[in-house]
Amino acid sequence: MFNRVVVSAVPIAVVLVLGSVLWQYDGMPDSDNPCTLTENNAEGPYYLEGSPLKEKIGEFLEGQRLVVSGNILDVDCNPIPGAIIDVWQTDSVGKYHFEDFVLRGKVHADDNGKYVIDTIFPGKYSEGGQFRPAHIHLKVSSLEGPALTTQLYFEGDEHHDWLTKSSLILETSESDGIVYSEFDFVIVP
């Protein structure tokens, strides 16, 4: 009987620990808190470690410029100074680049938690006969905390799929040929 209790307790403990680790980026809505954790999303198969710090991503490639800006905050709505956003995406025709960190780079938030991602608008691509919507992959983290892995999508895309979460869809505006959007990330510091 003692062995059964121990064996049963171990899986429950593992589930509780794993659940708390996975929950930290569940992004569960909380109407009482304006700073709800940003929802996670699939990393996808194309991430490469070691991206360099960049002010502009894909600056020498053809395509419409895209500027996404905002804040990186904790759940108490405090800015996270120096937070890091690791970005990767396709070019304007939907091709991932694997050499020389083309369309891959890290952006640092300033001392007030503000960031700017200056890149090109990503193209769609077909995977298994299905189009993926235009999206940007990101890993967002403080200097010490765990990374949030997510994707940002764009309003009006007819190819939104099962990975697309409504809280991750950006509203956009255009001025002088540049697409602009704002998005605040809320992460565990």
Description:
The chain is mostly beta strands and 189 residues long. It has one domain: Protocatechuate 3,4-Dioxygenase, subunit A, CATH 2.60.130.10. The chain contains one helix and twelve strands, in the order H-E-E-E-E-E-E-E-E-E-E-E-E. Strands 1, 4, 10, 11 and 12 form a five-stranded mixed β-sheet that branches. The longest helix has 22 residues, at 2-23. The N and C termini lie far apart (43 Å). 26% of the residues are buried. The model is unreliable at 1-25 (pLDDT under 50).
SSE blueprint:
Layout: H1 2-23, E1 65-73, E2 84-89, E3 104-108, E4 114-120, E5 125-127, E6 130-132, E7 135-141, E8 148-154, E9 169-170, E10 173-175, E11 178-182, E12 185-186
Parallel strand pairs: 1-11, 1-12, 8-9
Antiparallel strand pairs: 1-4, 2-3, 2-7, 5-6, 7-8, 10-11
Keywords, separated by commas or semicolons:
1 helix, 31% strand, 5-stranded mixed β-sheet, 189 residues, 12% helix, Protocatechuate 3,4-Dioxygenase, subunit A, mainly beta
Rg over CA atoms, rounded to whole Å, is: 19 Å
Proportion in helices: 10-25%
Q: Compute the number of strand runs.
A: 12
End-to-end C-alpha gap: 43 Å
Low-pLDDT stretches are 1-25
Query: What is the N-to-C order of secondary-structure elements (H for helix, E for strand)?
Result: HEEEEEEEEEEEE
CATH topology heading: Protocatechuate 3,4-Dioxygenase, subunit A
> Rough shape?
globular
Q: Helical stretch count? A: 1
The largest sheet is:
5 strands, mixed
